[in-house]
């Protein structure tokens, strides 16, 4: 998990101790997801694993779906930015989309839980985290395309990526298959670097 504070503009920043508690609960949440399933996860169980009171966990995470959405956001923030100008732009874009698609590829329980949490219900806290995830994805695509990139191309790449996630989340394709399919879609949208 990353160590930087994750509060949004307009929110009260967490102090060091609060950030440590937030991270403890978040880490316990992903560990439990890796060992069990979405159905078995509860905020109370995660709090117990993190060795904090349930009320403390609920201070940071309003629901199981909110906790899982934050887990996915944290994983997405760990995906590197592809900015090497010595690499052709199509190659950078392909690497960025592949890295994001493969974030949960080898963790089927985490992938399933994230899909369920992010696509279920209308919880406003999950919606806010979903927006932050979208901003992280946008940031990585924008970075790969470069500062002079056409906003329409960036939008097309984002829509393609989100559609690919839905396909993988629904089980139509594996995340590895989606990563491969994204490679040729990138060539269609931004051209080939060969």
From TrEMBL:
Looking at the record, the residues that make up the HTH tetR-type domain are 19-79
Q: DNA-binding region(s): which residue ranges? A: 42-61
Any GO MF annotation of the entry: DNA-binding transcription factor activity
Kindly give the InterPro entries that the UniProt entry links to this protein.
DNA-bd_HTH_TetR-type_CS, Homeodomain-like_sf, HTH-type_TetR-like_transc_reg, HTH_TetR
Keywords for the protein's UniProt record, in alphabetical order: DNA-binding, Transcription, Transcription regulation
Q: Which Pfam families match?
A: TetR_N
Query: Is Iron a UniProt keyword of this protein?
Result: no
Q: What is this protein called?
A: TetR family transcriptional regulator
* Protein species of origin: Mycolicibacterium sediminis
